[in-house]
Every structure is written in C-alpha cells, then in structure tokens.
Amino acid sequence: MASVIPEKLFFKIGEVCELAGVQAHVLRYWETEFPTLAPQKNRAGQRTYRRRDVEMALRIKELLYDEQYTIAGAKKKLANELRGGTTREADHGSVAKPATRSLKPPPSLAGKFSTSSASAPADSQSSHSFKPSSEQKEALRQIAKELREILDLLDESDRDARANTATSRK
After folding, report:
1. What is the pTM of this model?
2. Is residue 148 exposed (0-12), middle (13-18) or buried (19+ Cβ within 10 Å)?
3. Domain range for residue 137?
4. What is the CATH number of the domain that holds 32?
C-alpha cells in the first residue's frame, strides 16, 4: 500500500476514493461484500470512514487488483488474516494450523492495551507504510512458526492437565 493516510479521525467517501484510487460505487459495492468494511453514517446520512476503514479499503484493493484474488478469495484471505492466521505460509507449501487459543488480552487487560488512532503516537501510525525486506519477511515467518509451535505445546499441556484432572476425579 503506497498510499499515505493523512492523520485524521474521519474521511469522506471522496477522500477514500482518492486514497484507494477507486470510484465511489466500487467502495459501496465492497461494503456489501466485505463486512469488515463498514463505515458509519453521520446525521446527514453521509458515510464517514475511520482510519481502519481506509486501511481495510486499501487492503481489499490490494487483494483484488494487485494479488488478483476473486471476491470470494479475498473474503477468505481477510477472514484468515483477521483471525490471526496467515496464508502466506500456506502459499509456500506448509498449511498453517488455526490457533485454538485467543491471542487477545483478557478483558481485565484489554483496556490497558487498546489505543485509539487519535491517541496513538504519530510514529506508530506511520508504521503502516513499512515494507519489510525479504530477509525480514522470512524472519517474521520463522517467528510466527515458532509462536504457533509454542501455542501447540500449551494446548497439549492443557489437554494433559484436563486428562489428569479427569483421571484423578474417578
């Protein structure tokens, strides 16, 4: 995504069209096909896109136009990305197992880690335009693989603990 998203809270549909390089009817169609692209409407009934909506529109455009996904394929890819999985490894031959543990912080900690785009530091916002090198991508893939292995080990120990608890109750 080469577009730099301005530091604003809300965007009008025309601004999003300009950033994404598509016409308004295309964005409106994407809203019907991709539930993750859901701008709110103001009192006048005009769409107001937040930063995450603009980022989603840019990602959808990237999947459809650059990576040549079909609408259905792009939906699956986005759903997988939002679940925290990755299909990039699947593209390289190994199948990524879906995580059975939630990677979200517990509700008691969620407030401490959530930040709105208005209060986040400017440098964290500009990180969206970061393009990792192939070595960095490979390092990230390796880290993701190792994290999945850790999650698998934790799931295995949970199963063992439940089995031991069930056995001790008998």
Report:
1. 0.49
2. middle
3. 131-170
4. 1.10.1660.10
